[in-house]
Amino acid sequence: MTTPALTALRLALPGSRISYVVEAPFARLVEGHPALDETILVKSGQGPAAFLGLVRRIRRGRYDAVVDFHGGPRASRLTFLSGAPVRVGYEIPWRRLIYTVRVARQRADGPVHSVVNHINLVRALGCDVQDIPPLALPEPRPEEKARVATFIDGNGLAAARLVVVHVGAGNEFRDWGAAAAAELVRLLYGRPGVRVVLAGGAEDRERAAGIMNGAPGSVLSVAGTFGWAELRELIRRAALFVGPDSGPMHVAASTETPIVALFGPTLPAHFAPWRSDRVVILEKSLDCRPCRQRECLHHDVRCLRAIAPAEVMAAAARFLPG
To answer: Fewer CB atoms < 10 Å away: N or C end of the chain?
Structure first.
């Protein structure tokens, strides 16, 4: 969701050199973005020595400004040590000395969407941003596009209406549950021409296999086998995406594919798909929302798991006529 801010930054400062520091597992979401001159990778499990090497590389760049879109401990330390005279970040307690320009994440009159927050950091640099650009992820490389085409052609999906269902979520508070996903797959099976493809990370392979084994018909899985660019290409070619508030949902928002988004502990006002068309958001009104996703007050994550598969199917049916 930082990509609209990258586009806005490039439009406002066309002659600038823009680098993007990104953790290695997510690099493919920005590598090749037209607004960027380079990506700087942060390896997973980075120790103190590697972090100091990253700091030295940033300082050699002699950047005029650093924008901290993340605000976490490591990102804020890197911002502080960057040597940049202008350091823009969010108004966060105990970090006032890190940033030379600070932006509030919340407003008194209500919540601010994450995309708008990132744009506000660019505005704080003095850039005039009137219309917020759409999400913009890099196009897949030829080999990535070919792999998706092989998957579709090899499984006889070319004429099917593909429904991509994200069966993971990254943490238990955004996990709709295997049983609910399996029931949705069963309901989708009755729609003419529909084929379901399960998506997720490597940690979701076992769950996906269980759903496939119990499905009434042929269900496929790309959990743990497709990277970000390939997943986006698959979603782009699908008739529908269904999933909780997580990375794949926002990847889907960068395409024109309809979305049924399930919200639990997070609020759409902060994290809804950055699109206004062909999106259905399902949520339950509970006083405990939003929460910090540390411990469920009710011990059952009812904010998300109270969304019934039949409700999701009814929303999905809007985009699957017949």
So the answer is: C
